[in-house]
Amino acid sequence: WDGNVDEIDTIAADLVVSQQLNKPFFIGEAGINQRPERFELFRAKMDAAFANGTSGYLIWNFEMEECGGHCFYPGDPLIDIFQLYN
């Protein structure tokens, strides 16, 4: 990295760097608070990420009960997203 913030300001730019370095690219702590459309929004983001070479994707965060915000929990429709990328 040459210090130019514009070059590293996006996930796409970071992905390019990881590919140039022949390193895996992982997206961590991704969250979407918009309910009930979170499943489709995550699906679109994850489809695009994996189609472009992303190695892993972590949805933030799992809780044992409904907690609002960016979390997901047992019975949350977002749980079904894991079946798509398993």
Folded structure, characterized:
By secondary structure, this protein is of the alpha+beta class. The chain has helices at 11-20, 38-51, 81-84; strands spanning 26-30, 56-59. A two-stranded parallel ribbon has the order 1-2.
Structure, briefly:
The chain is of the alpha+beta class and 86 residues long. It is 33% helix and 10% strand.
Q: Pick out the low-confidence regions.
A: none
**What is the strand content?**
5-15%
Question: Biggest sheet, open or closed, and with what strands and sense?
Answer: 2 strands, parallel
User: Could you tell me the number of beta strands?
Assistant: 2
Task: List the defining traits of the structure above.
86 residues; alpha+beta; two-stranded parallel ribbon; 3 helices; elongated
List the helices and strands and how they pair.
Layout lengths: L10 H10 L5 E5 L7 H14 L4 E4 L21 H4 L2
Parallel strand pairs: 1-2
